[in-house]
Amino acid sequence: MNRDDFNRSLDADTPPPGLAPLAEALWYAAKCGGAVNAHWHIAHGIAEDDPSEMGSWLHAHLHRIEGDLGNAGYWYRRAGKPASAARLEDEWAEIAGAVVAL
């Protein structure tokens, strides 16, 4: 799936079948609308189970959405990334560019 296909899938009510776990977490992160809700919790659960730097980066992003910047900082360090000051939408797009390219 390329980035355009992934972005179009965000119009659906459920993620497309066969997504890699981090892509699925990213899909749910987009659907949470910048709030802690059921979609956020699904994304968080997936990211929390992924020990990779990419999983940690997405985990940090989710804690930024939550407003827990201290916890986000921990996950940015685990990801080897500086804490983001970008708009949440812009950081999501940056993560999506990396995740969907995997």
Commentary on this structure:
This protein is 65% helix and 0% strand. With 102 residues, the chain is mostly helical. The radius of gyration is 12 Å and the shape is globular. The relative contact order is 0.17.
What is the approximate shape?
Answer: globular
- The N- to C-terminal Cα distance equals 10 Å
Helix content: 55-70%
Determine the structural class based on helices, strands and strand pairing: mainly alpha
- Specify the number of helices: 6
Query: Unreliable stretches, pLDDT < 50, 5 or more residues?
Result: none
**Radius of gyration, whole Å:** 12 Å
Fraction in beta strands: under 5%
Element string (H = helix, E = strand): HHHHHH
What can be said about the biggest beta sheet? none
Find the count of extended strands (DSSP E, 2+ residues). Answer: 0
Keywords, separated by commas or semicolons:
single chain; 102 residues; mainly alpha
Topology record:
Elements: H1 3-9, H2 21-31, H3 38-48, H4 53-66, H5 69-79, H6 88-99
Helix pairs in contact: 2-3, 2-4, 2-6, 3-4, 4-5, 4-6
Question: What's the quick description here?
Answer:
Helix content is 65%, strand content 0%.
